[in-house]
Known about the structure:
By secondary structure, this protein is α/β, with parallel strands linked by helices. It has helices at residues 9-15, 17-24, 79-88, 157-163, 218-227, 246-258; strands at residues 5-6, 33-34, 41-42, 49-55, 60-66, 73-76, 98-103, 119-129, 132-141, 167-168, 183-187, 190-196, 205-215, 229-234, 263-271. The longest helix has 13 residues, at 246-258.
Amino acid sequence: xxxxxxxxxxxxxxxxxxxxxxxxxxxxxxxxxxxxxxxxxxxxxxxxxxxxxxxxxxxxxxxxxxxxxxxxxxxxxxxxxxxxxxxxxxxxxxxxxxxxxxxxxxxxxxxxxxxxxxxxxxxxxxxxxxxxxxxxxxxxxxxxxxxxxxxxxxxxxxxxxxxxxxxxxxxxxxxxxxxxxxxxxxxxxxxxxxxxxxxxxxxxxxxxxxxxxxxxxxxxxxxxxxxxxxxxxxxxxxxxxxxxxxxxxxxxxxxxxxxxxxxxxxxxxxxxx
Length: 273
């Protein structure tokens, strides 16, 4: 029986025509696989299958996914992120909200003079809106954020994000609107980056990038596979904190919104989940 394998032009360009042809002929294709997106079994002889190439700084890993989950594509990550993603395939998944921190990447801001270097804490969790669970990320700096070039001490984190297209949240039960040009990058069940438009043109750049990829829960990944959209909430330092349960995370979001200290945007999923 012929293999129902999809190899995109981008993947073909990376692996070469000979390797692509061997895959399509079934020589190097798997007899079965665990989908890199939904993690359930797949069979390229029974269902259409996408080839997904993860490309790091020095190595590349070819994975497979149900074509109904994601199309064949190239996902570019750092070498460290690639190795972490590969390790996650056999690692245990955490349950409940998961948090990671990383220095400011493409964030157009800086820590005020005399304060610690600001980093962004990012927490994943599920937020219920009108009875439906939505995959969400909550972003909170560890220090006040000043406007670039400013020598003041006023926290400008929320005004800077509003200038980027985020909207103030007054009611967590109202889903935020889609923010064009931004996306959330996941690969093999791990959060790698929040991407924003490149201010000088071209492709996207990292607004936030994880030092170590943030592993998300099975429930979070299942939900984002259905919605293909992530709700990203952001609040100034001290507004949310690291909450051990999703109900406490929701309470903290509602309190921040009531105090006028919460902005949000919806972003499409990039890469795989």
